[in-house]
Amino acid sequence: MRLAKRAGMRKAKVALARKLAVIMHRMLADVKTFDPIKSAAAKSLAAAA
């Protein structure tokens, strides 16, 4: 939403779609599944650092 306020809703939507596409592409290329528990743990560790 911060990007939408700064650059407009259309650019924010495109940025979000691109971010999701990059994540999905890496998951397909690495043949990995999404693990929400591992993702949440990594995010909390990064925030603590």
Molecular structure report:
- It is a single chain.
- The chain is mainly alpha-helical.
- Helix content is about 85%, strand content about 0%.
- The protein is built from 3 helices and no strands.
- The longest helix is centred in the middle third of the chain and has 22 residues.
- The mean pLDDT is about 80.
Task: Name a few traits of the molecule.
49 residues, mainly alpha, 3 helices, 84% helix, flat
Major sheet characteristics: none
Structural class: mainly alpha
Helix amount, in percent?
over 70%
Percentage beta strand: under 5%
Overall geometric form:
flat
What is this structure's SSE topology?
Blueprint: H1 2-7, H2 9-30, H3 36-48
Quickly describe the structure.
The chain is mainly α and 49 residues long. The protein contains three helices and no strands. It starts with a helix and ends with a helix.
